[in-house]
Amino acid sequence: MDTLRVGAGVGFYGDTFLPALEMMQQSAVDFVCFEDLAELTLAILQKDRARNPKQGGYTKDLIPMLEAGLGTALHNRVRIITNAGGLNPDAAAQAVTELAKRLGLSLKIATVTGDAILERLGEFLPFPHMETGQPLPQDISRRALFANVYLGARPIVRALEEGADLVITGRVADPSLFLAPVVYHFGWDWDNWDRIALGTVVGHLLECSSQVTGGNHGGHWDAIEGLDQIGFPIAEVNSDDQVVITKLPGSGGRVDVDTVREQLLYEIHDPSAYLTPDVVVNVTGARLELVGRDRVKVSGIRGTQRPAQYKALLGYEDGYMGQGMMGYSWPDALKKAQAVEAIMRRQISRFNLPVDEIRAEYLGYNSLHGPLANEEYADQLNEVYLRFAVRTPDRRTAEQISRLMVPLALGGPPTASGLIGVDRVRSLMGLWPTLIDRNVVDDQVSVKVEEVGT
Prior knowledge:
Blueprint: E1 3-10, H1 18-25, E2 31-34, H2 39-51, H3 62-75, E3 79-82, H4 89-103, E4 107-113, H5 138-142, E5 144-149, H6 154-161, E6 166-169, H7 174-186, H8 193-206, E7 233-238, E8 243-247, H9 257-264, E9 274-275, E10 280-282, E11 287-292, E12 295-299, E13 302-304, E14 309-329, H10 333-350, E15 357-363, E16 383-392, H11 395-405, H12 408-411, E17 417-420, E18 425-437, H13 438-442, E19 446-452
Parallel strand pairs: 1-2, 2-3, 3-6, 4-6
Antiparallel strand pairs: 1-7, 4-19, 5-14, 7-8, 8-12, 9-10, 10-13, 11-12, 14-16, 14-17, 14-18, 15-16
Helix pairs in contact: 3-4, 6-7, 7-8
């Protein structure tokens, strides 16, 4: 029976790639997929690209990861797929080309582009907001920094068919990265919706790396061993359409029904209609079965015809954030922090600062729970930090916020300590999601394969 092994490389920009290196070194997978992108990541990459338009805009962990593992991957015939190209896949491919030449490696590098549509934005107007239906305001359009479509797996399959050892993409939907090698290997028909849905679920289970092997687990997390060397998931897909989720033997973490079903439902708004670029997935009939140690069989996945539209995301300049943080100790730690919040609000009003939004959080009390924070022990807290942040269109106003807080170390409530974030200012980015006709996008998608070395 023919079995394909697909491994998770990273689950986000900044994730460890050591488990992926172990997979490559042990020849434990045929493909490893590095899923680097999220909406926040695009905002980070845009700031990098603004500083260096020609060479910025892709994730900076790509080159260190490949420097450590590309030679091993090629030697053990492990093919790599990644969306680390972010907002500048061509620059990422060029950097990899230079790395391969320096290391004396020979390989085929594929670059998938066409997801970026900012220069064609006028073709997609009114670009209605996906949730509200509001047309894109001209003011936001003028401040747009990037606009990208969430592509599916098809261009990656094309790249693999052309012999690519490494595929670098821009914004491809997370599970589509993992679906592509499955479709390529078994030659699945794109219109076999149940199969495409099964492959998409494989991607969904692997896309967040260790979340399916016991990381960030909500049930009996303290009984999971080896989190210091947690293993990343591997999907075994065979020619009979059977799927098993597992990990490297001896690695940390755990794969069981609970860890798998927790990830299965993660970020799925409607389990009966999980929308992806390749298929609409129905997981309501999913069956998860423990078939061995750290081995869970997945079945019962169904699919229906893919959506007629792609999701697209536009990022735009949205002012600045200014913030300050100050800590207070028992007694009355929360009360002291609340008093400082009130002082800050009065000062903003007195100086007539152009502030669009204020956010005050009390670390140690409600910075995670928000309005659900338990008030019963609020007056007994040992220490509380006030985080006071504002959103403003004016950079100078953002710079003033922490400066307003500094004098309160002496001129405010007692026990002030740990002033953090003096003059900390961050440019903010707004996000505008929409749905656009896929046919107009597909015509512009390009797959370029270049051979490096001899």
